Amino acid sequence: MLELTICSLLTILPDYLYRSRVQGKRIGHEITLYSVWFELRWGITGCVLLTTTLITVIFYYHPSTNQIVSVFRTVTILPENGGRVSEVLVSNNERVEQGQVLFRLDDAEARTAVATAEARLIELDAAETVAEAQLLAAQGTVDQAQGALTEAEEEFAAQSALLARGSGAVSVRQVEELENAADAARGAVRAAAASRDAVLAEIEEAIPAQRVTAEASLALAQVLLDQTEVVAGVTGRVEQFALQVGDFVSPVLRPAGILVPDSVENRSFTATYDQISAGVVKTGAFAEMTCLAKPFAIIPMRVTDVQPDIPSGQFRPTDNLIDGTLQRAPGRFIAQMTPIWPEQVADIPRGANCFGNVYTVPPHGSGAFMHVVGTTGVVHAAGLRLRALLLPVRTLVLTGGH
Q: Has this prediction a pTM greater than 0.70?
């Protein structure tokens, strides 16, 4: 309507002034409701053409959208493992700090696993003490066997020397028995040494390996016990948190609620545009918007990022060939916008819906056409402000507040 009014001032009004001032035609006499289409045909035709051209230029070079959303992310409150709730420490809509415990799950099984792993370590400490005592005993057995071997070898050497000198005090049979006794003593020494080495291997290898396994089991059991306490991963506000003692929560099917993180960075708004505006909406472009949550306010924005891909063209490989006729209707692309003055959006709730325009600003040294295009942005800016003024009336009166 604003474009039609402006164009009529440049076409219909001059044509009417010419008819009335020069040709002397008056409204209600020569110019009536039935003859106005013929009398002002040049002005009306020019108005239609100029209005169509102006609207096309404005909406192409200064695209608008009704789909601007203050985006934010949420964190689902989930336990690492499923379990039954034993204690709830926060309430819905409560603000929590990072690392704060939200609720606890039944930890009887986890505590039993920790106690079992700790008992296994104590058992290994006792086994190591016993093995050290066994090592001392085995070493004593080795020393005893070594002494017996020494005595047997000395006795065998002495009797063998007497037998070699032809002494009648020693018989061959006695020397052979002494030799067999010395061999038996050597075997006893080897057996005692093997027993000692086995006990030493248990102390130096078997028990340390079992200790490593037991410590790993204890660490795993402690991790499972710690996971029974569900903590806040970020600082924020708990929403949709209606958990009670006895409820069963699961990381797959039964979340406990939603955590809305505090926004510590510049607020970002996501705007959706038709594909025809892809050549105009560029990073760094100037924009304006107004929001339902903050009527009468025009907020200057800057385009910070433009999504290079359009969702309608994506596909996932399957066992069927793609039929182009089955593709969805032409999709839209997304542009990220941030306010030039962040304080202007501080009181706008996250998730608020807005609408606005992106303007094409002619670069320095551009031609006359681009300067005309830049000037036409004033019309769209005026239209945005008119919509902002009428927004409460349209929302509260014309639509009944729905």
A: no
Q: Quick: pLDDT tens for 234-251.
A: 899 999 888 889 888 888
Q: How far apart are CA 117 and CA 124, in angstroms?
A: 11
Q: What digits encode the pLDDT tens for the residues 280-302? A: 899 999 999 999 888 889 999 99
Q: How far apart are CA 301 and CA 339, in angstroms?
A: 4
Q: The tokens 């924009």 sit on which residue? A: 287
Q: Residues of the chain whose pLDDT is less than 50?
A: none
In 247-362, beta strands by DSSP E: 248-249, 257-261, 269-274, 286-291, 294-306, 332-339, 353-359
d(CA 42, CA 134): 119
User: What phi and psi, each to the nearest 5 degrees, are found at residue 7?
Assistant: -65, -35
Return d(Cα 246, Cα 306) in angstroms, integer. 48
CB 277 within 8 A of CB 64: no
Please count the other Cβ atoms lying within 10 Å of the Cβ belonging to residue 61: 22
Over residues 119-146, the pLDDT tens digits come to 998 988 888 888 888 888 878 877 787 7
Residue 53 CA to residue 50 CA, distance in Å, equals: 5
Q: Residues 75, 79, 83, 84: is their CA dihedral positive or negative?
A: negative
Rounded-to-integer distance, Cα 332 and Cα 271, Å: 10
- What is the token pair recorded at 228? 């029974």
Residue whose tokens read 């099917």: 253
Angle ∠(250,254,257) on CA atoms, nearest 5: 110
